[in-house]
Write a structure and sequence with these properties.
The protein contains 6 helices and 32 strands. The chain has 445 residues and is mainly beta. 42% of the residues are buried.
Length: 445
Amino acid sequence: MSGCFSRSNGERWWAIMAMIAFSVLIFNVPADDAHAAGRLTTESDARRLGLKRAWFTQVRLDPARNHVERAVLVGDRLSVLTTAGVLQEINALTGETVWTAPIGNPDYPSLGPAVSERHVALLNGSTLYVLDRADGRPVIARQVGGAPGAAPALSREHAFVPLLTGRIEGYPLGEQTLTPWYYQSFGRATVAPLATPESIVWATDSGHLYVGRVGDLGVRYRLETASEFVAPPAYHKPYVYAATLSGEVFAMHESTGARRWRYSTGFPVTRAPAALKELVFVTSEEPMLHCVDALHGAALWEAPKIAQFAALSRDRVYGVDDLGGLVVLDAKTGALLGRMPTDITTNALVNDQTDRIYLISADGMVQCLHEAGAKEPLYHKPVATPEQPVTTEEAAPSSEATATESPPDTAEETAPAEEVPEETEMPAEENPFGGETEDDNPFDF
């Protein structure tokens, strides 16, 4: 009996060790053998959907301890941040790694990245780091004035940090001052802000959305809702789009606050809308993908069981369904054209800039897909690079876009009078919401 018991235990031990060894092989499988682990889309699967894989790469991380925190596409560069604070800049056209930079303490939580044409920013613990986007060289490293509530945002001249207290601190990207200037808002700021060329937009868990100027301290207007914001706002000139936890989506003129329209999904919205020219895509927790007319706020179509928007081509919409599969929809009707299963840990980057599909797994496998024959990307927005930023003239809407979008004056006239708040011009020496003035800023580093 004793011998039989020992042999059984030994067999079990070897079986367990074999399983562990197999798991280690799976996690450390080279990129060339990734098909065996189910981490890469096969050529045959992609071909069935009329797609082709342009490239794939592996983000630098230890999958046993860390995962991808967030990826951001700006211009033709993809910035990927891991939970260990490693920032990797990837050429979005070729998959080539431009540079890799370990930032801060790997044991501290990292939030970000925020990306502009020239800089990349992240929070590691309570320290703000700003890097030169061209080569990863550090530009700024300084303590912020409290516990961060979400990832930072970047404009051309400032880095904005949301704090749990509701304070939004603005740090200049040039010469550093002892105390940053700030906005104080009602509620906790737990959603990443949005920086546009002219505004800083942020929301709080009290159901307030604020739009302030990026150059001088001052709040243009504030939107009050009955539900909190958990999804970051989106932007397509000249409108800001914001979605609440109750499922309402608002379109407002960036400068005046004139509400263009309000759309209800009927279910909570936890992901940022994707605004592309005349269309806005919103995914609700039903799950459902809503395609909305950006000019009038009318529903064009709805696609059930779609949990995430991925990309838009000339005739197709790509998304991820509730089972983790990549789906193809007809851009005009929302009808399902095809589906391809993917690894359950794979997510799609919400690409509102080009027709490229970027699939990113939790363990750092990044792959780019595009339609067969579409060698060059279809750009929905002007392209910006660290070496050649987009100018105001380049970023202006094209004549085609102007024909489908009302200019600011028209937007103000069409909005109901009671929905057009007056623009609030707050002087720089005053706190926009009362209380402490900027001279009494308690955060003196």
